[in-house]
């Protein structure tokens, strides 16, 4: 599942355990609950760091849970339900009233990579772990909000093609060159420390959280339309 810890004004969201952190409905609900708690306690100078235990950051939707439904129809119903449950989680991240940093300390695949890309910044270990959109290899199309998130976050058309039309397994140094992640680091500990350092540096600015969230939303207009997020005017607190 996941835990949320607050140290000073920094929130640490951790996917716990040694499994693949597959996005089962229970885990999605747990992450949403943690984000709601953090958002309710935000102050000027808050930031959120997300990471995971083990060799995976997240291996995407829990396909085994879907397959265990029994019939093909029931399995598809479970998969569609996970896609629908994950959509408001993306909304939560895009609307969160503080800067966010994900530390990818292991493999991040499919919806697990989308989870990382919901953050404002991403750090990644270079000694192991890849980024991988597996949908093409398993014969699944992308939900519309996945596609909008990818277009919003990755400006390079060749990088988008490599990720989704070639299903490449992308290492950290390649991910930096493609603009998918912001920095690569020797190992998981270094990637996490870099995320913490960046989060703390951002928090020092003590920005208005509501203004930060609205400006973030303005950077992703297509995604916000698909998510059904509307703009909220924010007046300056001082001139």
UniProtKB/TrEMBL annotation:
Class of this enzyme: isomerase
Known EC number: 5.3.3.8
InterPro entries: ClpP/crotonase-like_dom_sf, Enoyl-CoA_hydra/iso
Keyword Lipid metabolism: yes
Swiss-Prot/TrEMBL keywords: Lipid metabolism
GO biological processes: fatty acid beta-oxidation
Catalytic activity entry: a (3E)-enoyl-CoA = a 4-saturated (2E)-enoyl-CoA; a (3Z)-enoyl-CoA = a 4-saturated (2E)-enoyl-CoA
One cellular-component annotation, GO: peroxisome
Source organism, top-level taxon: Eukaryota
Pathway(s) where this gene product acts: Lipid metabolism; fatty acid beta-oxidation
Listed GO MF terms: delta(3)-delta(2)-enoyl-CoA isomerase activity
Family: Belongs to the enoyl-CoA hydratase/isomerase family.
Protein name: Delta(3)-Delta(2)-enoyl-CoA isomerase
